[in-house]
């Protein structure tokens, strides 16, 4: 793997990271919601 490829991947990662974070935050909220509903009876 050469450095130009690594820097290219890094560029893409840096650009994509905020979008991934946004998607991940939404997913995390959904999971927490579902998890809370599922776990409530067992508490």
UniProtKB/TrEMBL annotation:
Superkingdom per UniProt: Eukaryota
Organism: Anguilla anguilla
Protein known as: Uncharacterized protein
